[in-house]
Amino acid sequence: GENVGLHLPTLSVQEGDNSIINCAYSNSASDYFIWYKQESGKGPQFIIDIRSNMDKRQGQRVTVLLNKTVKHLSLQIAATQPGDSAVYFCAEAGGTSYGKLTFGQGTILTVHP
Amino acid sequence: GAVVSQHPSRVICKSGTSVKIECRSLDFQATTMFWYRQFPKKSLMLMATSNEGSKATYEQGVEKDKFLINHASLTLSTLTVTSAHPEDSSFYICSARDTTRVSYGYTFGSGTRLTVV
Question: So what's the pLDDT on residue A5?
Answer without folding.
Answer: 43
